[in-house]
Amino acid sequence: MSELTYSEAIQKAGNSITRFPLIPVRGIPLMNHIANNWDSIWDFRPDPSDLLIATYPKAGTTWTQEIVDLLFHNGDAEVCKRAPTPMRSPFLEICSPPPIPSGLDLLKKMDPPRVIKTHLPFQLVPTGFWENKCKAIYVARNAKDNLVSYYHFDCMNLTQPEPGPWEGYIHKFMKGELSWGSWYDHVKGYWMEREKRNILYLFYEDMKENPRREVERIMRYLELSLPDEVITRIVELTSFKNMKENPMANYSCIPAPVFDQTISPFMRKGEVGDWTNHFTPEQSKVFDEDYEKQMKDINIPFRTLI
């Protein structure tokens, strides 16, 4: 399906595009279309050559997808503009009203090796990924910045539940009442399984601080070896500025009835520490106290500033 027909499919869905309610699947709130199609998602059998890119929403998913695509194609920018991100790297669990293709529909039409995106917490990832020893990259972003980015995304993504006011959204995040559930459980789930499952666990803040180092880490994990000049090109092509201007990566293929980018651009700031522009001192204090309780059983080296 081309970019045009992908956009057309969303346009044709028309009146069926709405802020879909959340339904719990094994205790995790997911949009109703995902929940209603859960058996098919759970039964998905990846090829051993498939790569899974897993994140909590708004933690650097698209950035990582673009880096991986460029690594697999020797830094060829034109090849990586062959289709929008969701066509090149399908979103495993996403389901929408017909005629919009589901992630499973797109994957059926692709030959392995495939790059597959998911926001599912570890316990909901189809077991075939681990049974087939697929490689998996997980990207984690500090809670405060992740929360800010998710809030703005939920304002502009007109299929997600109404975010409500910022003050209330903080508490929804703390309670795990957003799509795909608790950030705390999500980052902990993959962290605890990273060695057993050979998961490359990356931090958004590290990627911002030294993108070349992290691109090289991904390259080695994928068992690739590219010349220095290709790595330099990939780092440049995946800068926030260049990706924001790239129509194959900035989700401009998703029409306004779904992503209203006049409310907030899909690629908004891409910064570490933007949370300081949103949290009041009191909100930050309450959040930090709750964070300490929820993360007391594990030591994941998050940074809220770099």
TrEMBL record:
<dbReference type="Pfam" id="PF00685">
    <property type="entry name" value="Sulfotransfer_1"/>
</dbReference>
<keyword id="KW-0963">Cytoplasm</keyword>
<dbReference type="InterPro" id="IPR027417">
    <property type="entry name" value="P-loop_NTPase"/>
</dbReference>
<comment type="similarity">
    <text>Belongs to the sulfotransferase 1 family.</text>
</comment>
<dbReference type="GO" id="GO:0008146">
    <property type="term" value="F:sulfotransferase activity"/>
</dbReference>
<dbReference type="GO" id="GO:0005737">
    <property type="term" value="C:cytoplasm"/>
</dbReference>
<dbReference type="GO" id="GO:0006584">
    <property type="term" value="P:catecholamine metabolic process"/>
</dbReference>
<feature type="domain" description="Sulfotransferase">
    <location>
        <begin position="48"/>
        <end position="298"/>
    </location>
</feature>
<keyword id="KW-0128">Catecholamine metabolism</keyword>
<dbReference type="GO" id="GO:0006805">
    <property type="term" value="P:xenobiotic metabolic process"/>
</dbReference>
<dbReference type="InterPro" id="IPR000863">
    <property type="entry name" value="Sulfotransferase_dom"/>
</dbReference>
<protein>
    <recommendedName>
        <fullName>Sulfotransferase</fullName>
        <ecNumber>2.8.2.-</ecNumber>
    </recommendedName>
</protein>
<keyword id="KW-0808">Transferase</keyword>
